[in-house]
Each structure stands twice: as structure tokens, then as C-alpha cells.
């Protein structure tokens, strides 16, 4: 009798242990599955589709950066590439709503919060064999250029020819154009008056200004909105003056989607300088229509 009782007790204890072990294993598997799902949600869209717990970190929370061609630690391959739209309406791409107007509020993400920060500039054609051709919107040849310049301007959207002329994005999907190796786009261009558009033209059809213009997703920040970025206060202008943190949202890019602000530096050297002082993807606060920036207003 005593032997049967002891046997029953041992079997009961073993059953509890097995049930408890299964319960722990199931909990661990669930946690791992949840973490994997969060990581997958980031996908190729980076922070745009990231769940709240995986929001971008501020500069104080990120270690180091990787320079101009590389990005900060949160960078995903290919996200740095942006393509200006320079005064043209979007054609139904992500976040596209056509040409925005100042003060127009989109139905996208909240206006104020932490944004991904990146930089873009205005390439100039150097010396070398002119083995590539830029075409206008009718596929008429516009200019023979170096391959290096072609491959840079098709990413940045505007650039300065060796002759001194300025070219800017006209439209994409041009059958006559060479494929841009970094974006896969086929871009046509137009000539601009270099006196009026010394650094190219933005999505509002106005001249863009180095270290004042930012490209945004107009579903999140309406075009024409002054914005204050406190993390960039004190960074240098080309003449050594310190920046006040005020910018104007007057450009777009098909790779600038969601919570992202792309600062126009105007020059690859300045891109390198700012990227060293405040690397891309550290994360910045963007405050639209801050009173400190009211003087910028809409450019004419």
C-alpha cells in the first residue's frame, strides 16, 4: 500500500515538472517570435514601418557613425539613396499626394517627434571623358557628361555642368535615359537658369538653399513649412557662422518617406563636414512652424 502511494506521488511530481517545462519553453518561443516579427517589420522602409518600441534613437543613445557614404548604426542598405522631384507632382508613390501647399496638413504621421536625418548635395561635373548623355523630357540630347557626373546627378536630382549650366530633374521613366546604377531609375532633365537656380530647384518650383532647404514627405510635413531642428543648432555654415536650427521644407524625394528630414548641404564637402559632426540616422526632433523660424516663410 505504502509502495503504491509513493509511486503515485512520484508520478504526480514528474507530471508537474513536465508541464512547467513546457510552459517555460512556450513562453521563450513566443518572446523570440515577437522579437523576430518586430525586426522584420522594419524591412526596407527603415523607421517608417518600425513598431513603436523600435523607434530611432537620439544621438546620445547611438555610438559612432560611418561617414558620408555610410550611415549611422540604424542604417539599412539602400535607404540613403534619395531622388529629388524638383517641382514635379508625385505619381502615386509611397506617401505621394501631388504638390503640397504651405500649411496643408496631411493625414500621415504626427508632425512633431523624432525623425531620421540624412543629407544631400549638389554635384558638379569634373574632368574626364564625356561618355554619358543627359536627355530632356522629350528625349532630345541635353548634354554629354562624364559617367561619374551622370551617376551622381541621377541620385541627387540637380547638378552643375562643367560648362557652368545647371540641370535638374524633369521626369522619371524616360526610355531614352541610361539606368541610374544606384536607384534603378531612368531620369530626364531640363536646363535651369543658373542665376535663378544656382543650386537647383525644389519640389515647390523655387530655388533651394544650402543648409536651409530640407526635403520631407509632404504627407508628414507640408511643403512650405518652416521647421526647427534643435540637434542641428550650432553646426557651421560655409562662412563659419553657427546655424540657428531653422530650415524650410521645400523639397521631396521618392526615398524620403515618413519620418525623415533630408538636409540640403549644397556641396559634397559640406555633406562630409556635417555628417562628421552629426552623422546621418542619429535621429532629430523636428518642430514644424516653430516661432523661432517664422522669418523663413515661403520662398518666392
Automatic annotation (TrEMBL):
- SUPFAM superfamilies, A to Z: Barwin-like endoglucanases
Question: What's one Pfam family here?
Answer: 3D
Which residue ranges are recorded for the region named Disordered? 45-113
Superkingdom of origin organism:
Bacteria
Show where the 3D domain sits: 212-266
UniProt xrefs under InterPro entries:
3D_dom (IPR010611), RlpA-like_sf (IPR036908)
Biological process terms from the Gene Ontology for this record are: peptidoglycan turnover
Instruction: Give start-end positions of Basic and acidic residues composition bias.
Output: 78-89, 98-108
Q: Name one GO cellular component term.
A: outer membrane
- GO MF annotation: an example: hydrolase activity, hydrolyzing O-glycosyl compounds
Its recorded name reads 3D domain-containing protein
What is the organism field in this record? Chondromyces crocatus
Amino acid at each position: 500500500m505504502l509502495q503504491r502511494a509513493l509511486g503515485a506521488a512520484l508520478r504526480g511530481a514528474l507530471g508537474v515538472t513536465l508541464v512547467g517545462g513546457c510552459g517555460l519553453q512556450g513562453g521563450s518561443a513566443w518572446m523570440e517570435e515577437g522579437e523576430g516579427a518586430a525586426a522584420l517589420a522594419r524591412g526596407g522602409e527603415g523607421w517608417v514601418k518600425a513598431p513603436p518600441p523600435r523607434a530611432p534613437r537620439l544621438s546620445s543613445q547611438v555610438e559612432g557613425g560611418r561617414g558620408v557614404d555610410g550611415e549611422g548604426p540604424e542604417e539599412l542598405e539602400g535607404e540613403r539613396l534619395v531622388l529629388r522631384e524638383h517641382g514635379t507632382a508625385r505619381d502615386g508613390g509611397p506617401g505621394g499626394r501631388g504638390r503640397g501647399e504651405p500649411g496643408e496638413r496631411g493625414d500621415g504621421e504626427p508632425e512633431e517627434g523624432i525623425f531620421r536625418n540624412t543629407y544631400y548635395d549638389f554635384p558638379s561635373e569634373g574632368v574626364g571623358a564625356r561618355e554619358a548623355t543627359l536627355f530632356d523630357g522629350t528625349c532630345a540630347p541635353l548634354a554629354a557628361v562624364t559617367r561619374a557626373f551622370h551617376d551622381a546627378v541621377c541620385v541627387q536630382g540637380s547638378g552643375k555642368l562643367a560648362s557652368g549650366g545647371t540641370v535638374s530633374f524633369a521626369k522619371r521613366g524616360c526610355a531614352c535615359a541610361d539606368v541610374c546604377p544606384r536607384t534603378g531609375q531612368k531620369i530626364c532633365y531640363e536646363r535651369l537658369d543658373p542665376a535663378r537656380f544656382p543650386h537647383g530647384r525644389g519640389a515647390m518650383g523655387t530655388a533651394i538653399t544650402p543648409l536651409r532647404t530640407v526635403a520631407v514627405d509632404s504627407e508628414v510635413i507640408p511643403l512650405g513649412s518652416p521647421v526647427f531642428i534643435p540637434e542641428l543648432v550650432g553646426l557651421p555654415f560655409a562662412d563659419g557662422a553657427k546655424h540657428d536650427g531653422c530650415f524650410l521644407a521645400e523639397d521631396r524625394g521618392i526615398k524620403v518617406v515618413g519620418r525623415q528630414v533630408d538636409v540640403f548641404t549644397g556641396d559634397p564637402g559640406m555633406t562630409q563636414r556635417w555628417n562628421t559632426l552629426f552623422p546621418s540616422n542619429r535621429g532629430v526632433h523636428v518642430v514644424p512652424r516653430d516661432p523661432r523660424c517664422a522669418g523663413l516663410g515661403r520662398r518666392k
